[in-house]
Design brief:
about 160 residues; mainly alpha; two-stranded antiparallel ribbon; 6 helices; 2 strands
Length: about 160
């Protein structure tokens, strides 16, 4: 990890820090748990309520926020002789959060729980547990000690910064 004394310090805002910007969108308990449910195949309002034990008003607010932020999209569906309802599906941006949710699940299982978790993620192809792993864009696995922090002087178009 870098020597933080070498980094120029500036106020932490959603405009200057990608972590702050992400936390503004998905940083509360309910948003992360809704995303976990989405990744496990839940898409309907009543199923979120039942599975999470969340109030109608909080769920409505968090789903609205996740849709407004481009993490989820609403898709109409209709059950026989019933009104049209909406289900919630991840956008591409939402799917990109899966490694973060898996990392939180694994971290929580190892460091925050006294009993084994009720749920885990497994590879459909072989059944092994799934891990979130650091790797560079050239495909090399990266140890935490090999991560360098760089401050670009300008942000290139299409950059993830």
């Amino acid at each position: 990890m870098p020597d933080t004394a070498l980094l120029p310090h500036q106020p932490v805002t959603s405009e200057t820090c990608a972590v702050a910007a992400a936390v503004d969108i998905v940083g509360d308990r309910w948003s992360l748990l809704i995303l976990r449910e989405v990744f496990f195949g839940v898409s309907r309002f009543d199923d979120f309520r039942t599975g999470l034990g969340i109030s109608r008003s909080v769920l409505t607010s968090r789903l609205d926020d996740l849709v407004r932020s481009g993490v989820l999209r609403r898709t109409p569906y209709r059950v026989e002789d019933d009104r049209t309802r909406l289900e919630y599906r991840p956008t591409r941006a939402g799917v990109e959060l899966l490694p973060s949710v898996v990392a939180l699940m694994r971290w929580g299982a190892h460091h925050a729980m006294s009993k084994p978790p009720a749920l885990s993620t497994r590879h459909a192809g072989c059944g092994a547990e799934v891990d979130a792993v650091l790797c560079c864009r050239d495909g090399h696995t990266v140890a935490p000690t090999d991560v360098e922090v760089h401050m670009p002087t300008t942000t290139p178009a299409g950059s993830d910064i």
